[in-house]
Design a protein that fits this description.
Number of helices: 15
Largest sheet: 7 strands, mixed
Number of strands: 13
Strand content: 5-15%
Order of helices and strands: HEHHHEHEHEEEHEHEHEEHHHHEHEEH
Bound molecules: (2S)-2-hydroxybutanedioic acid
Structural class: alpha/beta
Shape: globular
Radius of gyration: 21 Å
Length: about 400
């Protein structure tokens, strides 16, 4: 029987009537009360919008110029205004929408290209790309001696042919949380340049690894190599706008004719699928990014959120250590972002859900962004107890 995916497990969790149930399924930030709060700055901007908005008929198929420009400035922190003009950034339905449009265009424009995904990766990546692209390949993404095993990635990707497309996650790798160092990004950019690969950067977690600016290192490095690449970013996590489905697709291409061809293709996909993107989220993002006061309030709230997730991670690691189970489930402790990735068997994942009401996805990925502090002991003690049950 097919195993349940992230959103199906969430449905199952909601229907579970047990009081002690713990939802660690989806990468959503939850506060101490179990609510995914609206950022204060977002609330403020929304209140202003309600009184000032005068139309719901803006008809910007690719998003407003203000939205596009403010997103560009947030992403490409080392480029001059003139260089930004060469980049096409369009509004999409979150990063997922951007990835889906990209997959669609690649399948049509480059039918011979294979798409390379990390193994493991976000559970929805293969599904999004398999909808369009027939040849999906994998490169291993795993730790070695506590850090990312870059040699294996380089060796796997050396089998890629010119014109192939490779997906990287710009920061906070989902599910592993393994950090990619500056030196390693340079190696990856150099490989893409030498082998003429087209990188897609899935940038769903900007601001959740180190901070909003330092997390753009990967884009600065790719700019330095002068190669064509694509960025798919989202404001779900870093502005808490999950349900608004607000993100962007950016094309950093050297050839303006190619950018124009892609723009036409994007317009065609948008027109034939949803016609126009929803506007509310884009108005909020534009205002937060372009108003200096709101911008700095947002950065502060985001910093606090990230620090709090890191604090939760430490609580879990420390408790696991205290219970003597760290080595068993963590083959590296330097993880960043919304998740902790444990080495659990499917049997273990099922047992935790069925016996303890702890919901974790099959990869062993635990959303600590959703973890209520008061449940840390319960989680770790359940892990220890079930480990014993599985062994005996
Ligand atoms: C996750 O990985 O949990 C998030 O990106 C939410 C989702 O849609 O899967």
């Amino acid at each position: 029987m097919k195993r349940k995916g992230i959103l199906q497990l969430l449905e199952q969790y909601k229907a579970d009537s047990r009081e002690q149930k713990v939802n660690l399924v989806v990468g959503i930030y939850m506060d101490k009360t179990g609510n995914s709060p609206i950022f204060n700055v977002v609330k403020k901007v929304e209140e202003n919008l309600i009184s000032s908005e005068i139309t719901k008929a803006k008809f910007n198929m690719l998003g407003s110029c203000e939205y596009q420009d403010s997103v560009k400035k947030l992403l490409f922190t080392n480029l001059e205004e003139k260089e930004l003009d060469n980049i096409l950034t369009v509004q999409t339905l979150g990063a997922s929408g951007a990835l889906s449009i990209t997959a669609n265009i690649i399948a049509n424009k480059y039918p011979e290209a294979s798409l390379w995904l990390s193994n493991p990766t976000w559970e929805n990546h293969p599904a999004i790309f398999e909808n369009h692209i027939s040849s999906i390949k994998e490169y291993q993404f795993k730790p070695k001696d506590g850090v990312l095993d870059i040699d294996t990635i380089i060796s796997d990707l050396s089998a890629a042919k010119a014109g192939d497309v490779v997906l990287f996650q710009g920061c906070c790798h989902n599910p592993t949380g393994i950090v990619i160092t500056t030196d390693q990004w340079n190696k990856l950019a150099s490989l893409c340049s030498e082998r003429h690969l087209l990188p897609i950067i899935d940038f769903a977690y900007q601001g959740l690894e180190v901070d909003l600016v330092l997390d753009t290192e990967v884009l600065n490095i790719f700019n330095g190599y002068g190669i064509d690449y694509i960025v798919c970013n989202s404001f779900s996590k870093n502005m808490g706008l999950y349900d608004e489905r607000i993100g962007a697709l950016s094309l950093v291409f050297n050839d303006s004719k190619l950018t124009q061809e892609w723009e036409l293709a994007i317009r065609n996909i948008v027109r034939t699928t949803y016609s126009l993107p929803p506007v509310h989220g884009s108005l909020v993002v534009t205002e937060v990014l372009s108003n200096p006061e709101f911008n700095s309030a947002w950065r502060q709230e985001l910093d606090e959120l990230r620090d709090y997730i890191d604090y939760r991670r430490n609580l879990v690691f420390n408790k696991m250590k205290e219970l003597g189970i760290t080595d068993k489930y963590l083959n590296y402790t330097q993880q960043k972002g919304m998740f902790i990735c444990l080495q659990l068997s499917l049997e273990h994942v099922d047992l935790l859900r069925e016996e303890y009401g702890i919901y974790i996805i099959d990869s062993g990925r635990v959303s600590i962004a959703s973890l209520d502090e008061t449940k840390v002991n319960y989680l770790c003690e359940s892990l220890a107890a079930t480990a014993y049950m599985i062994e005996s």
